[in-house]
Amino acid sequence: MEIFEDSGGRASRVLQHLSRLEALYTDMLPGPDLLHGDWGCTPPPGENQSPRASDYWNAVKVTTTLNVIENIALLGLSFVSSKENYDIHKMYFIIFMVCSELYMVLTCLLLKDHKRRLTTPMEQLAYKKKKQLMTANLTSFFIALYFFYRHNTYCEPGSKFDE
Q1: Rounded Cα gap, residues 90 and 77, in angstroms
Q2: What does the angle CA 89 – CA 91 – CA 96 come to, to the nearest 5 degrees?
Q3: How confident is the model at residue 57 (pLDDT cuts 50, 70, 90)?
């Protein structure tokens, strides 16, 4: 006990912070209400499932697969420079962009189908922000695609470095 007495009360403050963190973490864990609703109580794809639940789980699998492929392509982009091997770099970039955009759209569609499950104001705000970011990202992507096409087609200089 001498250690605690010499620490000037720091140990008790650490314990208080730890108990607050534990309470915060416990609040974030899914509770028994997770199993209520049409998506929480559906089993993984199998024989005893409604077609709607099976479609949902298939969409989740596709979305997860797209996210994994997106991350692998991003790793490929990081390790293969365009100067080193342009064709491989280009392939990784196309895969990354397609998977990233599809992942974003499918995630928003999955959340839209289960919008009534977004019960807290924070969840509703997160969904709203996700939709706004998806719209901005898709718009930016198509604008960049247009300028990339235009630059390659008409060989327009893009900056003072192209001179």
Answers
A1: 8
A2: 95
A3: confident
Whether residues 66 and 49 share a domain: the answer is yes
Q: Is residue 140 within 8 Å of 101, Cβ to Cβ?
A: no
Q: Which domain holds residue 118?
A: 38-162
In whole angstroms, give the CA distance from residue 12 to residue 30. 29
- Give me 37's structure tokens: 């609703």
Domain count, the chain: 2
* pLDDT band with cut points at 50, 70 and 90 for residue 112: confident
Which residue carries 């996700």 as its tokens?
130
Give one word for 69, left, alpha or beta, with left for phi > 0 and alpha for psi -120 to 50: alpha
